[in-house]
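Morning run. Coffee first, then this:
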Amino acid sequence: MKTLANAKDKEEIVQRLRGIRPESQRRWGKMTAPEMVCHLSDAFRISMGQKAARPARTVFTRTLFKWAGLWFPTRWPHGVRTVPECDPKLGGSSPAEFESDLGELWGLLDRFTRQPDGFQWAAHPIFGPMSEKEWMRWGYLHMDHHLRQFCA
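And here it is:
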């Protein structure tokens, strides 16, 4: 199972992210490529405790949904709504200058995967508390999902 803890898997994500341009066309969903970059950054900020997010979880989302989302061998479905704090059209960060926003994402990805990490993992707004192993798996799946949204 792919994870950002694996250098080869992280490099795959990095290479795919290098192919994103401000004008990249989405294959599904409502976000533009610049909004997607901000969305990914906000999600990393929440995971590392740099941004607060109101919990939108239930016992179901913290257990079965979390397990299936992280470990079931299938791609995440399209159309699952994010929390408002990660939605650039609601309470999330709005795009500014694409190269600067992308640079911010690079820095957050680096910090998220750095060992030792130097921060306390926050609870995921939907999945609840997660281990570092779960966060690394989530990080890969989340980035993969949105990179597939804009390119293969």
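The chain has a mean pLDDT of 93. Good start to the day.
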